Amino acid sequence: MAAIGIFLFPVILIIFQPDAGSCLVFLSFFLLLYREGLNPVYYYIFFLCIAGFVGSLILGLYNSTIVLIFFTILASSFYIREKIIPIASLIIFIAVYFFFYSEANFFYLLGFYLALLGINLFLAWKNRAPKDLVLILFTFIGLNIISLGANLIFEFLKPHQQERINVWLHPEKCDPKGSLYNVLQSKMAIGSGGFSGKGFLEGTMTKLNYVPEQSTDFIYCTVGEEFGFIGTGFIIFLFILLITRIIILAERQKLNFAKNYGYCIAGILFIHIFINISMTIGLMPIIGIPLPFLSYGGSSMMGFSLLLGVFLKMDYSRQIR
What we know:
Layout: H1 2-15, H2 20-25, H3 30-35, H4 40-79, H5 84-99, H6 106-127, H7 130-156, H8 159-169, H9 181-192, H10 204-207, H11 219-252, H12 256-280, H13 298-320
Helix pairs in contact: 4-5, 4-6, 4-7, 5-6, 6-7, 9-11, 11-12, 12-13
């Protein structure tokens, strides 16, 4: 927990700038923490909360509550011995859902969900240890708080921040010539490359500057148009090979510092590669994160080169001892 606190301190400072891209880079330390023995349950809870937050923004408050009810019933079947109760709950839920299918009757469904949650907690307390009861309680109540809070937080965001989220989750609400333009052009450029691409410097959309920032944040769409599926797949393969090699070398280190440093580099590269490629194809919101060793920019190239250079020096020192 102390290590997590150390990571969160610079994140809080960066948020005040604000710079969301730099904040996300600190997620790269998840690989190091896992290697050092952090309980995987924390990762499960974190991704569950993210899924609840994003799901609420996609489905809306009413539909996300319905999904939570369904998963509550599904989860209850794993720890309730009386299997008839989850089956009966599911039947009642379907009946209530079809009878009160209206956002105006949202509180009927919410009341049913709270009653169902109370029954599940009681049966968990009856059949399991108190530890399971606390885990169930925090999981379901936490998911509800996140689901309810997601829509409230969205309303307090600035207009340009709301636009970025809508581009990611609700592109139908965005202007194709406005906020949606970058992602739309990027996806069209990648798709136009086909299987083998149009050839080096022969991409029409990138050559005619239809894709903004094509040499920096959207460099991947240039590769996709000029070299097609083969080129983009080869780039991803090289990145996977690089990260795998770094992890193998990190495991061979005799000093814990060198080993942890190697895992930090692997995590940083993974986060940059995953977010940059995902945002060019519309799977992640647009964030100003470069693609390592491909995006144009001296500071980016120098930073990644220094990271690898220091690690290679550490590995060399291990070999000559």
